Amino acid sequence: MLFDEAEGKSQDLENNYDLLDSWKKRSDELLYSMIPKSVADRMRGEDCIEMCETFESITVLFCEILGLHSSTVEEALSIVDCLNAVFTCFDALMDKFQVYKVETVGYIYMVAGGAPERTDAAVHAQRVASVADAMISEVKKLKIKGLTEVGVRIGIHSGTAVAGVVGLKTPRYCFFGDTINIASRMQSTSTNGNINISMVTKTLLPSYQYKFQTRGLVKVKGKGEMETFFLTKRY
């Protein structure tokens, strides 16, 4: 009887360990969905403030989903479904091209290359350019499937930025600096179906792999006039 009782307690203990391990995995998955794994693992033993990093060169992309408007609850629900379909397609591209999805805010999808895993400037610029090209291709596929009203305009810029974990209750890995502002301006001055890039990003992309269309000087809010280019083809 004592043996049976001990065996029962041992089984209960084993079940509790399995349950604890299962919950730990779920907790890690949730954390990794908000913060890069490499950063989250470091957070376990460091102060968040001490983990702020300066990146001498990253490439930032902003992609805005166009053509979605709502005036009724039904239309709003349809937009949510549409955004979910588009963003799910985009999410699948992140690991493929080794870039990081920073966040989505409304109709905007933000991506960073070269952080938190550092790479050479030419490498992260090409990865982000490839993602931008793939995003446009994915939207074209969705149009064929019936989402005919959906469009995108994309902006890309490369430069220095600071990154760190912000928030305690819902921590996020965020980027700060003028590079982010300029990348956002590249997006807002782009047009439907195009990838608008700054001169800095253009110099990082090899001309034998990419084709560019100059836009001349474009008025950029807060920056005056900047020379920008449409990335029109990837060989």
UniProtKB/TrEMBL annotation:
Pfam families xrefs: Guanylate_cyc (PF00211), HNOBA (PF07701)
Keyword Cell cycle: no
E.C. no: 4.6.1.2
InterPro entries: A/G_cyclase, HNOB_dom_associated, Nucleotide_cyclase
Keyword Transmembrane: no
This protein's UniProt keywords: cGMP biosynthesis, Lyase, Nucleotide-binding
Domain Guanylate cyclase: from-to ranges: 59-187
One of the GO BP terms on file: response to oxygen levels
Tree of life domain: Eukaryota
Gene3D superfamilies: 6.10.250.780, Nucleotide cyclase
Gene Ontology CC annotation, any one: guanylate cyclase complex, soluble
Molecular function per GO: guanylate cyclase activity; nucleotide binding
Alphabetized PROSITE patterns for the sequence: GUANYLATE_CYCLASE_2
Protein name as annotated: guanylate cyclase
Organism: Photinus pyralis (Common eastern firefly)
Lineage: Eukaryota, Metazoa, Ecdysozoa, Arthropoda, Hexapoda
